[in-house]
Amino acid sequence: EVQLVESGGGLVKPGGSLRLSCAASGFTFSSYSMNWVRQAPGKGLEWVSSISSSSSYIYYADSVKGRFTISRDNAKNSLYLQMNSLRAEDTAVYYCAREEPGGICDYWGQGTLVTVSS
Amino acid sequence: SYVLTQPPSVSVAPGQTARITCGGNNIGSKSVHWYQQKPGQAPVLVVYDDSDRPSGIPERFSGSNSGNTATLTISRVEAGDEADYYCQVWDSSSDHRVVFGGGTKLTVL
């Protein structure tokens, strides 16, 4: 059974940093691209970042470029999102999602809530 | 970057057919995927590659895509179908790879 479990969310002050993790199991993690997708309270889904299976290709939404860094450790079956210079507008539930070819996000974690507030 | 436009809300009576549209420039040339999200839950893939269904998704869910509009059709709507629905494409030509529509709230009357 495919499982994605996010962790690392919490309350952080504006300008602060946080590192999210996503633990994957039930599939060959090293064979899949992965995504971070976020959802602000009461809002829609917003793609944040993508990383290819071997970390060769990395992409970011304009809203986080230069502040967030996506990475993965295939030996540990884990995906990460380092978030720096956090802003109030980064407050959201952050989901990790497995990506099938063609950009299909076929499995999602349960999400972890990040709240940026003083 | 590529933009997908969805109506904010669609309402339908139980047993009727709901159609949720997703507009985009020449979207018919792209593969469209659809997600269902119920309150407090993660999104669930219900249709991929325009019209294919993942295992476990009822046949009542179907999709089509042509020209500038993709459509998710839910037949014989049930109360349990009430949720937010998002369309999504993969924009391989840009750095903004995964693009979501704004979402449509389906209300079952």
Q: By helix and strand content of chain B, what is the structural category? A: mainly beta
Tell me the helix content of chain A.
under 10%
- Helical run tally of chain B: 0
How many helix segments of chain A?
0
Q: What is the C-alpha radius of gyration of chain A, as a whole number of Å? A: 13 Å
Principal-axis shape of chain A = globular
Main beta-sheet annotation of chain B: 6 strands, mixed
- Compute the average pLDDT of chain B: 95
What's the mean pLDDT score of chain A?
97
Radius of gyration of chain B: 13 Å
Write a structural description.
- The complex is a heterodimer of chains A (118) and B (109).
- Chain A is an all-beta fold and 118 residues long.
- Chain A has strands spanning 3-7, 10-12, 18-25, 33-39, 45-51, 58-60, 68-73, 78-83, 92-100, 104-108, 112-116.
- Helices cover 0% and strands 54% of the residues of chain A.
- In chain A, the strands form two sheets. In chain A, strands 2, 4, 5, 6, 9, 10 and 11 form a seven-stranded mixed beta sheet that branches. A four-stranded antiparallel beta sheet of chain A has the order 1-3-8-7, with no helix packed on it.
- With 109 residues, chain B is mostly beta strands.
- Chain B is built from no helices and nine strands.
- Chain B has strands at residues 9-12, 18-23, 32-37, 44-47, 61-66, 69-74, 83-90, 98-100, 104-108.
- In chain B, the strands form two sheets. In chain B, strands 1, 3, 4, 7, 8 and 9 form a six-stranded mixed beta sheet that branches. Chain B has a three-stranded antiparallel beta sheet with strand order 2-6-5, with no helix packed on it.
- In chain B, strand 3 and strand 4 (44-47) form a beta hairpin.
- The model of chain B has no long low-confidence stretch (mean pLDDT 95).
- The interface between A and B is medium-sized, with 23 and 27 residues.
